[in-house]
Amino acid sequence: MPFKISFFMWKVWKAKLPLDDFLKRIGYCMPSKCWCCIQPDEESLQHLFFRSETAKITWRYFLSRAGIDVEGLTLHQAIIKCWTANVCLRLKPIMQAFPSCIVWELWKRRNSMTYGDGVRTSRVIYQVSSNLQALVKVRKPGMIMVPHKWQDLLAVMENFTPKLKVTKVMWEFPSAGWLKVNTDVKSVGKEIEETTNTVAEAKAMVEALRFYRLKQYSHVWLQTDSMLLKKIMDGIWKPPWIIYEQVEEMMQLMNGGNYTVTHIHREGKKLADHLANYALDHGEIECQQFWHLDAHGRRLVNEDKLQCPKLRVKVNRR
Fold first, then answer.
1. Torsion of CA 231, 234, 235, 237, to 10 degrees
2. Angle of helix 121-139 versus helix 150-159 axis, rounded to 10
3. How far apart are CA 100 and CA 97, in angstroms?
4. pLDDT at position 45, please?
C-alpha cells in the first residue's frame, strides 16, 4: 500500500492521472463533468483535489489546525507548505504524509461517486484522520493513546516525550589462552574501496582470520557489531550474494580451529573504532605495546581494563 500511494502521489504531482483535463491535453476532447459536486464543474486535477467543495473543506480542516492558510494557494503550493512546515521534528513525517492521505481519499471518493456510491465529506475527513492515526501508531509504538481527532493528535505529538531504553555495554576480557579481535568497517589494516558497511565488515573479518591463521593461533574470539554477519556465521541466515565469497572464505579459515563469533554494540568497541579512524587520518598504524598508542587510545584501553561501562541510549520501541 505505501508504494501504491507513493506512485499515485507522483502521478498527482506530475498531473498524469486520467482525468478529463489530462485527456484533453493529449487530444481526446469530450464533455467533462466532475462527479464529486452537486453542481458539476469540469473535472480537472486542481478542481478535484483542491477547489471542489469537499476538497476545500478537507484541506481547510487539517491545514488551519496546523497553522497554515490555504487561501490563494494551488494544490502544489499547499503540498509544499505541508512538506516544509515549520513544526517540531516529531510532526515532520506526519505533515509530510498527510497530503498523500488527503488526495488518496479524495480519489477514492471520486471513483465511488462515479459508480453511484455517495461518500460524504465527513467520511473523507474521518478516513484521513484514521490513516494519520495509524501512521503515528507505527512510528511511535511507545505511545499508549493515539487520538483520532486531528487537533488532539497534533497536541499529543507536540507534547510527547518518548521513553528511552538505556543499555550498559562493556568490553569483555577473553578467557586464558584466547585471542580476541574487534573488527571495525575501517580497521582492516589496508584500504578498502568504497562499499557498504556489511561488505567492509565482512572483509575486515576475513583479513583478521587470515592474519591469525597465518600466525597459527587456534583459539580466536571474533567480535563484530554486525548482527547480520553474526547470524550468518551461526548458520541462522543465508549470506547475501554480495558477501558470499567472504563468508565462504571465513568458513574455510575457521575450519580446524577453535573460533567463535559474537556480537557487540559499537559502544563496546571504542578502541577498534578509534584505531580505524586514526589510521584513516594519519596512515597505517601498528601497535605492539600500550605506549605505542596515542593518548586517547591509551585512555580507551584503561577504561576497558577497568570495565568502565558505556551507555547505549535509544528510543524504546515497545
1. 0
2. 20
3. 6
4. 86
Q: Is the pTM of this model over 0.85?
A: no
Name which of 45, 19, 304 is nearest 180 in CA terms. Answer: 304
d(CA 34, CA 251): 66
In angstroms, what is the C-alpha Rg of the chain?
Answer: 29
Does an H or E element contain 80, and which?
helix 75-83
At residue 69, what is the residue type? D
Instruction: Give the Cα separation of 314 and 162 in Å (integer).
Output: 10
Residue whose C-alpha is closest to residue 50's, from 63, 59, 42: 59
The residues, ordered by sequence, that sit 6+ positions from 38 with a Cβ below 8 Å of its Cβ are 53
Beta bridge partners of 224: 263
Nearest to 257 by CA among 217, 297, 287: 217
Backbone angles phi, psi at 251, to 5 degrees: -60, -40
The span from the CA of 287 to the CA of 196, in Å, is: 27
CA 180, 185, 189, 195 dihedral sign is positive
Residue 188 sits at φ, ψ, to 5 deg, of: -110, 0
Whether the Cβ atoms of residue 246 and residue 203 lie closer than 8 Å to each other = yes
- Report d(CA 253, CA 258) in Å as an integer: 11
Residue ranges of the chain with per-residue pLDDT less than 70: 1-5, 30-33, 35, 38-40, 185-195, 317-318
Give the pLDDT confidence of 201-253 residue by residue, as tens digits. 899 899 889 988 888 888 999 999 899 999 999 999 999 999 999 999 999 99
